[in-house]
Protein 1
Amino acid sequence: MTKPKNTTAAPTYVIAGGLPEDVAANIRIVDAGTGETIPGVLEADVEAGKVTRYDVEGGNLVREGDAFKTVEEKRAIRIEWIKPPLVAEAEADAKGAA
């Protein structure tokens, strides 16, 4: 996959609630081998090759008692932009957050 010019790199670590809403809505976590999106991700670490996600069966979250079941997996993953932000946009967002 070729990264368009003048765009910023996608994050290599994400955790639910740990990113601004607009950034979180603009990334997807994919299986590096198949390219398929991994649904229900709560935490993903590219360097460690680790994903914590909700267990999903038939498009539905799996319950375990009173909570939704989570699964921790070791697997090769990528975090990709859905629409890569331009470098100038990313720098402006960073200055606004400081």
Note: The two ends are 32 Å apart (CA to CA).
Protein 2
Amino acid sequence: MTVEIVAKVAASASLDVINGIVVQNENTIGPLTQIGIDKGLTALTFAVDDPPAQHAVISKDIDGTPTIPDGSTVIDTDLILLIGLPTLCTAVRPN
């Protein structure tokens, strides 16, 4: 059974702040596994495990299309709150 920890981020946070939180938590908890919204906050779910070799990056989808750099694996696509607005985003991990 995988143990997971959900980090809640203020709805007012910017994408840069959220990506910084991802790096911090991946270093201390383990890899990002899911993104979303929970009770008016951005929810970032991390598996309790060794830190990943490459950190996940969350980016805004453009017209509903995720930005997936070559050689990256999609972790999750969902709405998160960016500066208070629900925004479709995708989390990827470079390989």
Note: The mean pLDDT is 97.
Protein 3
Amino acid sequence: MVKSAPSISARTVLLERDPVLTSLEGKAGRSIQESDTAGASSILSTQGSLVLTHELRRDIVLSASAVTTRWIIRRLFVMTI
């Protein structure tokens, strides 16, 4: 079972023309989740996305997007003396 901790995210509009016909929106986020997997203490997740939108006409809107997610499993190290 994976428990989720509070996450941090950001959103910004990178490109916007007037009148707004084309826009480029970027999002980024990072979260840490507790893991119940043996030997793993937590999972660090980083997400990012870009969305490009263009209004060709009032009734035709074109959109393209790219999304990426990276997972890092943090191992629990136990030292014995």
Note: The chain is about 0% helix and 75% strand.
Protein 4
Amino acid sequence: MKWFAKIVGKSYAYTELLIKTRQNKVNKGYKIAKAEKEAQRLMDEQFGSKSPTETEVSAETKAEPKLKRRSVDLEEFDEEDWTRFFEELGTV
């Protein structure tokens, strides 16, 4: 009967080791997939591959008409206007 107890004990230890090994393999796969998803999220956040918010879009559309109103026809500038412009910039 002693030999039977040894066989049962060893088979029980073997099955426990087998289950533990399989579970560790599954856990590693899950952790790797989770880390890859987190890395992808961080890269997307870092490189700015996100769509602009509605407030950013509305601010851009509101700025366009103001820029159009401030535009100047450069053909109307004469030499006097150009010199005054460059003097105001401090380049002359």
Note: The two ends are 109 Å apart (CA to CA).
